[in-house]
TrEMBL record:
It is found in: Cell membrane. It comes from Paenibacillus albicereus. This is Amino acid ABC transporter permease. Belongs to the binding-protein-dependent transport system permease family. The keyword Transport applies. PROSITE patterns: ABC_TM1. It holds the Pfam family BPD_transp_1. Residues 19-220 form the ABC transmembrane type-1 domain. It is a multi-pass membrane protein.
Amino acid sequence: MNLDLAFIAEALLKLLPAVPTTLLLTAVSVGCGLAAGSVLALLRLFSVPVLGRLAAGWVTVIRGTPMLTHLLLLYAGLPLLLDSLAGQLGSSWTSARIPMIAFAMLSFSVTASAYGSEVIRSGLLAVSRGQMEAALSVGMTVPQALRRIVFPQALAASVPNLTNFVIGMLHASTLAFVVSVVDINAQAEIVASTNWKYFEAFLAAAVLFWAMTLVLERIGAALEKRVNRYHRGGVA
C-alpha cells in the first residue's frame, strides 16, 4: 500500500472547518455535565431524602448504558414527545426545526452529567469534613462554605480526573455523525469519498485529535502545577 502523504496534508486542511463543531460539542457537554454533575454529587453527599437516591440511580443508569444508546434514544424519542406536546397545545411547531447538533449536545450532556458527577464527588470526598465544620463555625452559610472553601479544594484535587474527563468527551464527540452532525470524523469521510483514500483521511483526523489532546494535556498539567505550587505555599 502506498501512503499518499500529500493527500494527508490536504485532508488536514479540509478537516479544519469541522474543528469548531467538535470543540463546541465538547465544551457544551463538559460545561453542562459538570454543572449537572455538581448538583448530583451534592445530593448524594448530603444524602438528601429521595433526591439523593434518584441522583444515585441516574448515575448508575447513565454509566451503565452506552453513550451511543443515549444519543439514539433522544434522537428517536424526543421528537415524538415534543410533536405530541405541540399537537395537544394546538401549536404548528414541529421538532423538525431543531438542528441535529442540538440532539448531540443534549445527549452528550446527559452522559457527561453522570461521569462528571463522579469526578466532582471524588474531589469533594478528598476534602476533609473539618473544612466545612470550620467554615460553618465562623458564620458562613453552607452555600458560602461550599463556594469559598470546599469546591476550590475539590476542583484542585480533581484536576487530573477533570483533564481525563474532558479528553474523553472530546473523543466521544465523534459519535455525533450518527445524527448527521459534520464533526471531524464525518468531515474525514466526506473528504475521503472524493477519491476513496479513507485511510489517509482518517489518519489525518487521528493526527488532528492527537494534537488537540496534547493541548488539553498541557493545559491540565499547567493547572496541576499551579495548584501544587499553591498548596506548597508558593505564589498562585
